[in-house]
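PROTEIN DATA CARD
Card holder: Iron complex transport system permease protein
Chain length: 337
Origin: Methanobrevibacter gottschalkii DSM 11977
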Amino acid sequence: MDNDSKDVISIILLIFLPIILFFTSFLLGRYPISPIDVINTILCPIFPQLEVSPTITTIVFEIRLPRIIAAIVVGAALAMAGAAFQSIFKNPLVSPDLLGVSNGAGFGAALAILISGAGVVTQIFAFAFGIISVSVTYLISRAYKAGGILILVLSGVAISAFFSALISAIKFIADPDDKLPEIVYWLMGSLASITMDQLIMIIIPIIVGMIILLTLRWHMNLLAMGDEEAQSLGLNPTRVRLLIIAGCTLLTSAAVSVSGIIGWIGLVIPHMARMIVGPDNKILIPASLSFGASFLLLIDNISRAIISIEIPIGILTAIIGVPIFLYLLKRGYSEWA
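Structure generated from the sequence above:
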C-alpha cells in the first residue's frame, strides 16, 4: 500500500471513527435503546410528528447526550494537550499534568467539596486552581537565572507534589462518612453526573485552547528542532512555548474540572496517533483530537455497560492504557531515540 492510500485511510478513520462511536454510544447502557428509537428521538425536535417515548427522550437528551459530549470533549482536550507537551518538551513520557495542573485542579475540587459540596463551586475551584498551579510553576521557573525547560519541568514536579500533599491533608480532615467518599470518587474520575450546564461552562476555555494548539502546531515542529534552530528561522521559542503551555493548561483544567482526574489519555493517545499519521504536528495534533475523543468515548461505554455497577473511568483508563502504552512505546522507541 502506497503512502497516498495510507493517508486517505487515515483521514477516513480520523473523521468517521468518532462519528460511529457517537451514535453507537446512545444504544449502550442499563436501559437499552434501539437504533430506530435513537434516530427518531434525535430527529423529533425537527419532525414533531415522530412518535417518541418520553422516557427514551429523557434518557437520550438529559442523560446520555451530555455524557457522550463530555467524553468527546475531555478525551480530545487531554490528548491534544499531551501531544503538544510531548512535542515541545521532546519527551515521549510527558503528559498534560507535567506542570501540576491535575493535582492543582484536584486540590481545588477537594477544597470546594469540603467547604461547599455544590457541583458548580467544585467545577469553578478545580478550573481555577489548575490554572493557578501552572502559573506558579512557570513563575518559579522564571525566578531561576539558569531557567530553561529542565527548571520548568522540575518546578512542575515540585508544585504537583505540593498540591498532592494538600489533597492528602484535605482527605485527612474531611468527614469520613460524607465528604471523604465524595472527594475520593471525584479524584478517580467519572462522567456519570455530567450535565449540559457543566459543559457550557467549559466551552470557551476548550475552544480557546484548541485554537491555540491548532494555530501553533506548525511552530511545534520548529521547537522540536531546538531553540537555536527555531530562532534562526525567526521564531521566539520562549513566547511560543508559553502560548502552547497556556493552551494546554486551559484544555486540561477545563477537562479535569468536569471529569475529575483521568490519567493516561494524554500519554497514550499521542503515541497511538503518531504510529498512524507520523510525528508531523500539523497532522498529529488533529489526529490526537480525534483519537482522544474516540478512545475516551469507548472507555466510557465500557465503564457503563460491562457490569451493573459503574466503574470510575479513571480506573479503566489506567488498566487499559498501561498495556497499550507499553506496546506503543516498544514499537515507537526507535523514533524517539
